[in-house]
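Input/output pair, single chain:
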Amino acid sequence: MSDSRYIDFISAYCDRWCERCAFTERCSLFAVQCAMAMCDDEVEAMELAVGRAPSEDGEPSETDVSSWIAELNAIPPPTAAETAELHRQSAEQEARLDATSIVQTARAYTVLAARWLRAESASLKQRAEADIRDALEIVEWDHFLITMKLRRALHGLDEIARGTELDDEFVRKDANGTAKLALLCIERSETAWRAIAQWSDNEFAAVFAEQLAQLQREVEQEFPDARATIRPGLDEPV
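Output:
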């Protein structure tokens, strides 16, 4: 991203809770989403949000982003054999991720929390004070996100272990940054569940908090460098 208004890759390691984010003005993804809501044409939206493609000297090019889209469309599709091999490799990788303790713990939490929230959240919000409503909103936002981000982080470690042609340093940094985001969501959700449990005396809320405490320990063991990872913008001095 050449536009100095935006922080490169900031949206890669955020929780996508734009309504609560202080960095929306520095986020190109947020700008594109807003532009897409205003424009009927995707090329027009991209140019409105991030400008035209830069030329070799760094100046705005006379050729707009439609040329990039045309180049992508010109790439020949994979053959049937290549597609089948990619599907086989992907299925094997998904099976490896599903077998990890982290994914199993996270998935169990997500499924059980979703059931509880569908049954209890609306009625609790009607009689809860502002801080408990906020706690409920936090666990609602995070309970799917945690599992998604942990799978992405573990996907990176799996890519490194398989010895793919990707840049190991970049992949490891991405995995640690993603794991750090997951840890932050786990922590705030655990705190939220404990607040809900104390207010409502609901035993399931307390169980969810303990599940997340266990998950946090597992993630910190698997990603010992995650806490020290500096995410673009989000962990940097303003």
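The helical segments are 28-38, 42-50, 66-74, 80-98, 101-127, 130-162, 168-200, 203-222. The chain has a mean pLDDT of 88.
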